């Protein structure tokens, strides 16, 4: 609006022709602001919808310290038949970090979903536990049984895999199972002649080497399913980053890991730690004691209150330093009896569901996939650890 010399600003404003021009300019500005607001709102809605579809629960994890969740909120275990009293009395969960805990057992699982190798020590590498030998390094879960489409196979579908026992014999990984001749697979395949394939773990692609027809026929025979193959992920391939996971649960887990965190064929963490006291507490509420191997940890500790490991944030074992990323959600694999290779212990999962299910709505999107038992770890400093090592807690 422009003022004329003949009229004062007030007169100019009050003049009918000026007022009409002012009104037009005013409503033009209002229209522009309204359009801009509508575009901004539509863009915000689209962004939120995209985040909700691709990263469920993203808004609930904002502001939480990257690399871990808050400690789980869980219920009390159920009373067994004939027991008296309040069920809540059975889980005096201590939130104080125990300073007397030690490593009581170490386990490496060279073949995903198969038996463990118990050891007195291993090297804590960036991809998980390592058994270093003069003939090469055996990495945790660096071999895997796959379908003809190279999709991973586990005890969830083939519980008989619990009977497959790997061993190290010089330069070979020797695989044994009831009624089968030993299968010998080289620890270090010749990558210049190896058949490199793309395998699949929870919809995430990872490069691997096909172990050949002899290994394939061995697993086909024992697991009674045609088309099975065995694959291996050499250390040179570099593992798969935790931030690259594509499966639904892994999308959420991306909030909890750091760029350096990697694993090979493990479901979703390079290390798993559990206390013997947590297992003993669980066994008090089942009719038959539950062996710790049902839960397949790499590190079994003792000398702490039950489930106290939930509150261990950063700690050192031997020369290695670890970070508690989140509780481990347990699945039907915990119901497989390691001695028989059958789904014979359904009570294990049912009991855990009764008192170790997440009850915190703020993280339900992350922890809704099963009861919580043991903790998934990221490694901040690699190095050796041994049975007997004391857990040394570090500043958060």
Describe the structure.
This protein is α+β, with helices and mostly antiparallel strands. The protein has two domains: 9-54; 59-393, no CATH class. It has eight helices and 21 strands. The protein has an eight-stranded mixed beta sheet. It has a four-stranded antiparallel beta sheet with strand order 5-4-3-20, with no helix packed on it. It has a four-stranded antiparallel beta sheet with strand order 6-12-11-10. The radius of gyration is 29 Å and the shape is globular. The model is unreliable at 54-67, 84-92 and 246-252 (pLDDT under 50).
Which key terms come to mind for this protein?
single chain, 396 residues, alpha+beta, 8-stranded mixed β-sheet, 4-stranded antiparallel β-sheet
Largest sheet: 8 strands, mixed
Q: Please provide the count of β strands.
A: 21
Helix count equals: 8
Number of domains: 2
Roughly what is the average pLDDT, rounded to an integer?
83
The helix/strand order is: HHHEEEEEEEEEEEHEEHEEHEEEHHEEE
Radius of gyration: 29 Å
Apparent shape: globular
Give the helix/strand class: alpha+beta
Report the span from N to C terminus: 62 Å
Strand content bin:
25-35%
């Amino acid at each position: 609006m422009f003022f004329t010399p003949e009229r004062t600003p007030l007169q100019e404003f009050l003049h009918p022709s000026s007022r009409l021009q002012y009104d037009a300019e005013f409503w033009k500005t209002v229209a522009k602001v309204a359009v801009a607001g509508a575009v901004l709102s539509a863009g915000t809605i689209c962004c939120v919808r995209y985040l909700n579809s691709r990263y469920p629960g993203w808004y609930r994890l904002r502001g939480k310290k990257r690399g871990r969740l808050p400690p789980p909120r869980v219920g009390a275990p159920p009373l067994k038949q004939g027991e008296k009293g309040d069920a809540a009395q059975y889980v005096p969960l201590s939130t104080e970090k125990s300073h007397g805990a030690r490593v009581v057992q170490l386990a490496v699982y060279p073949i995903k979903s198969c038996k463990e190798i118990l050891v007195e020590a291993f090297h804590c590498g960036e991809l998980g536990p390592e058994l270093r030998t003069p003939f090469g390094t055996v990495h945790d879960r660096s071999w895997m049984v796959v379908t003809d489409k190279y999709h991973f196979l586990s005890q969830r579908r083939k519980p008989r895999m619990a009977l497959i026992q790997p061993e190290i014999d010089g330069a070979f990984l020797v695989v044994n199972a009831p009624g089968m001749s030993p299968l010998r697979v080289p620890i270090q395949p010749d990558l210049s002649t190896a058949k490199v394939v793309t395998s699949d773990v929870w919809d995430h692609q990872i490069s691997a080497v096909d172990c050949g027809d002899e290994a394939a026929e061995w697993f086909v025979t024992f697991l009674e399913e045609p088309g099975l193959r065995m694959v291996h992920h050499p250390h040179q391939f570099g593992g798969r980053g935790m931030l690259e996971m594509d499966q639904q649960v892994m999308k959420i887990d991306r909030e909890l890991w750091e760029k350096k965190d990697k694993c090979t064929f493990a479901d979703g963490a390079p290390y798993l730690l559990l206390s013997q006291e947590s297992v003993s507490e669980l066994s008090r509420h089942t009719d038959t004691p539950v062996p710790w191997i049902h839960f397949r940890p790499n590190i079994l500790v003792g000398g702490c209150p039950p489930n106290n490991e939930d509150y261990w944030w950063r700690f050192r074992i031997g020369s290695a330093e670890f970070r508690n990323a989140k509780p481990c959600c347990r699945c039907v694999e915990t119901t497989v009896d390691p001695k028989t290779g059958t789904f014979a212990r359904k009570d294990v999962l049912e009991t855990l569901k009764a008192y170790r299910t997440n009850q915190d709505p703020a993280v339900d999107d992350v922890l809704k996939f099963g009861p919580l038992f043991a903790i998934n770890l990221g490694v901040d400093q690699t190095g050796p650890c041994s049975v007997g090592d004391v857990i040394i807690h570090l500043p958060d």
